[in-house]
Design a protein that fits this description.
Layout (H helix, E strand, L loop, with lengths): L8 E6 L8 H10 L3 E6 L9 H8 L10 H6 L2 H7 L2 E7 L1 H8 L6 H8 L4 E5 L3 H5 L1 H12 L3 E2 L3 E4 L5 E5 L3 H12 L8 E6 L4 E4 L2 E3 L6 H12 L3 E6 L10 E5 L3 H12 L4 E4 L6 E3 L20 E3 L3 H6 L7 E8 L3 H11 L4 E6 L11 E8 L2 E9 H16 L1
Parallel strand pairs: 1-2, 1-3, 3-4, 4-5, 8-11, 8-13, 11-12, 13-16, 16-17
Antiparallel strand pairs: 6-7, 9-10, 14-15, 17-18, 18-19
Helix pairs in contact: 1-2, 1-9, 4-6, 5-8, 10-14
Bound molecules: cytidine-5'-monophosphate (C5P).
Length: about 400
C-alpha cells in the first residue's frame, strides 16, 4: 500500500448518525496509508458504533468526554487539538454542524473544533429533508465561509428510506479527499483555464453538428490541476461529466460561445489548455424553423463557414498572454502534424496522441501522449488520463519556471 498519508495526524470526530458505522472501515483505510488516527466521539455517536470498536481499529484510546480525568492524563483535549494536522468530522450531523457554526463548546468534539488551528473538513450526513432545511444550509455555508472544507454529502438511498442528498461520502472517497488534501501543491498560486468536450453547431432549432469528444481528458486535467493547488476554470462544451471538486465550470454550446469565454478568461489565467474538440466549421445560416424533408429533394446541402481557431487566438494575445498548451489528436504521422500545429498556432506546448490506436484517446479513460515544445519533446507514454494530466501539468510547470 502506498503510504500517501505517512506521518499525518488525523483527528476523526464522529457524531451520532447511522453512517458512523462506516468509521471503522474509514479509520482502517487511513491507517493503512500511514496516517495516525485519534478518534473523538459524541455521546450520540456511541449509540451507533462502540468506542471499543474504534479503539481497536485506531489503536488509540477513544476520547468521549470533556471531563474525563484519565483521558486528560494521556492526551488532554488541548493537546489533542494541537496534535492534529487535519480534523475530519465524519459523519457530521445537522446538530454537530449547527453547534460548530454557533461556535459552541458544549461537548468534547465541538470544544476541539474551537481549540484547533488545524484545517477542518466536514462530511455532512443526515436525512435529505434535514440537509435541505434552510438552517442546515445556512450553517454549512457559514462553515465554508470560515474556510472549513465541506466534503459531500453524496446523493442516493438513505437509511430512513428517503432518497436524496445527505449520504455521507463512502470511506474510500473520504480517504481520497484526505490524500488530495495532503498531496504536494506545486501549482499553488497558479491559475489554469481549460477548454473541454465537443462544441455543437446548430443547423436549425432541433439539429446540430458535433463530434464524439467525451470531455474526459479536459475534465481529468481540471481535476488534477485543482488537486495540485491551482485555481481552475473549465470551459466545457456539452458533456455528461460531473464537475471536479473545486473547479469553476463555465458551460458553453457552440464554438463561438467557447471562443468568447476563452478569450475573456485566458487573460485572467497563467496557463491556457485547449483540450476541446472544437468544430472546425459551422452552418452558415441558422434556420429559424425546423428544416422539413421534401419529397422532391434527395440531397440536402448545408453551406458551412469556418469557426474561429480559439487556441490560435489565445496564443496570439499581445497582452496578458497565458502559457498556451494545445492538443493534437492525429491518426497518422503524429510527430510531424503535432510540430506543425505547435508552430502554426503559436503554442508553447502541444500534447500529441494517436487516436487510431484502440483503447486510447477518444471516449477512453486512457491515453498515450508525447509532449512537444519549441526545442524538445517528452514521451509521457501510456496511462490513465489522470496520470497523464499530472505529467502534462508538471512538464508545463518545468517550461514556465
Ligand atoms: O482541431 P485541431 O487538431 O486543429 O486542434 C488542435 C488544438 O487546437 C486543440 O488544442 C484544440 O482544442 C484547439 N482548437 C481550438 N479552436 C479550434 C480548433 C482547434 O482551440 N477552432
Amino acid at each position: 500500500m502506498q503510504q500517501t498519508l505517512a506521518g499525518k495526524n488525523i483527528l476523526l470526530g464522529i457524531s451520532g448518525g447511522i453512517a458512523a458505522y462506516k468509521c471503522a472501515d474509514l479509520t482502517r483505510r487511513l491507517i493503512e496509508r500511514g496516517a495516525k488516527v485519534h478518534v473523538v466521539m459524541t455521546k450520540a455517536a456511541q449509540e451507533f458504533i462502540t468506542p471499543l470498536t474504534m479503539q481497536a481499529v485506531s489503536g488509540n484510546p477513544i476520547s468521549t468526554s470533556l471531563f474525563d480525568p484519565t483521558a486528560e492524563l494521556s492526551m488532554g483535549h488541548i493537546e489533542l487539538a494541537k496534535w492534529a494536522d487535519l480534523v475530519l468530522l465524519a459523519p457530521a450531523t445537522a446538530d454537530l454542524i449547527a453547534r460548530v457554526a454557533a461556535g459552541m463548546g458544549n461537548d468534547l468534539l465541538s470544544t476541539l473544533v474551537l481549540a484547533t488551528d488545524a484545517p477542518v473538513a466536514v462530511s455532512p450526513a443526515m436525512n435529505q429533508q434535514m440537509y435541505q432545511n434552510i438552517a442546515t444550509q445556512e450553517n454549512i455555508a457559514t462553515l465554508a465561509r470560515r474556510n472549513m472544507m465541506i466534503w459531500g454529502p453524496g446523493k442516493g438511498e438513505q437509511a430512513c428510506g428517503d432518497v436524496g442528498m445527505g449520504r455521507m461520502l463512502e470511506p474510500m472517497q473520504l480517504v481520497g479527499l484526505c490524500e488530495d488534501f495532503f498531496a504536494p501543491k506545486p501549482l499553488h498560486g497558479r491559475s489554469v483555464v481549460i477548454t473541454a468536450g465537443p462544441t455543437r453547431e446548430a443547423i436549425d432549432p432541433v439539429r446540430y453538428i458535433s463530434n464524439h469528444s467525451s470531455g474526459k481528458m479536459g475534465f481529468a486535467l481540471a481535476a488534477t490541476a485543482a488537486k495540485l493547488g491551482a485555481n481552475v476554470s473549465l470551459i466545457s462544451g456539452p458533456v455528461s461529466l460531473a464537475t471536479p471538486n473545486g473547479v469553476n465550470r463555465i458551460d458553453v454550446t457552440s464554438a463561438e460561445e467557447m471562443y468568447q469565454a476563452s478569450l475573456k478568461l485566458a487573460k485572467q489565467h497563467d496557463i491556457f489548455i485547449g483540450c476541446a474538440a472544437v468544430a472546425d466549421y459551422r452552418p452558415e445560416h441558422l434556420a429559424t424553423q425546423k428544416i422539413k424533408k421534401s419529397a422532391d429533394n434527395d440531397n440536402m446541402h448545408i453551406s458551412m463557414v469556418k469557426n474561429p481557431d480559439i487556441i490560435a487566438a489565445v496564443a496570439s494575445l499581445t497582452e496578458a498572454r497565458p502559457f498556451t498548451i494545445g492538443f493534437a489528436a492525429e491518426t497518422q504521422d503524429v510527430e510531424n502534424y503535432a510540430k506543425d500545429k505547435l508552430q502554426r498556432k503559436g503554442l508553447d506546448m502541444i500534447c500529441a496522441n494517436d487516436v487510431s490506436v484502440e483503447g486510447q484517446g477518444f471516449n477512453s479513460d486512457n491515453n498515450s501522449i508525447t509532449v512537444y515544445w519549441a526545442d524538445d519533446k517528452k514521451e509521457l507514454g501510456f496511462g490513465s488520463k489522470t496520470e497523464l494530466s499530472q505529467a502534462i501539468l508538471l512538464t508545463a510547470l518545468g517550461q514556465i519556471d
